[in-house]
Amino acid sequence: MPEIVRRKSDTLSVMASPLRFFLSHSMLDASEVEKLQETIVGLGVSVYLAENDPQPGVNLAAKVLAEIKASDAVIVLLAEGGASSPWVQQEIGVAMAAGKLVVPIVQAGIDVKMAGLAGLEYISVDFASPGDAAVIVSSALEPLVRRHAEKQARQAQQDMLVALGLVALVLLIAYSSK
């Protein structure tokens, strides 16, 4: 649901909430994670990385579970470390159980069947060529980002119509009572 905020001019404005991706990955793939995050953020998408959200004393599994549930989609990076990571496997299972869209981004040469993603379409990239990888990822994710923006625009229009309807109803009641 769009957030309503006040501008300095005191008029109401509707701000769309950005698309939120949870990025499932292994810490062993830090270089690829950094490149991937930069590419996704470049599309205007908010990316959640657990290591960028330290909360001492908070149960890590509970934090990750809550963030997966709060995300719009889960991007799974399967590079050398992620393909065999038990954490990545668990995050995939949680995302699927929560009904989240799971988008695997797979380093060339990695077997997706090993990661429990058999049957899912995936984006194949070669991070040895970072420029090409960024173009491939951007091109593949852009339609998802565009659909989200279109959905939010439709929702904002519907919200505005409801608000206008309520204003009209209040005016009708005010005029009727005079």
Number of domains: 1
Q: Write down the CATH class.
A: Alpha Beta
Shape: elongated
> What percent of residues are in strands?
15-25%
**Based on DSSP secondary structure assignment, what is the total number of beta strands?**
7
Poorly predicted spans:
1-14
Oligomer: single chain
Number of helices: 4
State the CATH topology: Rossmann fold
Please give the radius of gyration in angstroms: 21 Å
Helical proportion, percent range: 40-55%
Largest sheet: 5 strands, parallel
- CATH architecture heading: 3-Layer(aba) Sandwich
Give the termini separation.
37 Å
Q: Give average pLDDT, whole number.
A: 84
What does this protein structure show overall?
The strands form 2 sheets. Strands 4-3-5-6-7 form a 5-stranded parallel beta sheet, with helices on both faces. Strands 1-2 form a two-stranded antiparallel ribbon. It has a single domain, classed as Rossmann fold (3-Layer(aba) Sandwich), CATH 3.40.50. The longest helix is centred in the C-terminal third of the chain and has 47 residues. It is an alpha/beta fold and 178 residues long. Helix 1 crosses helix 4. It contains 4 helices and 7 strands, in the order E-E-E-H-E-H-E-H-E-E-H.
What distinguishing features does this structure have?
disordered N terminus; two-stranded antiparallel ribbon; 4 helices; 178 residues; Rossmann fold; 5-stranded parallel beta sheet; elongated; alpha/beta; 18% strand; 46% helix
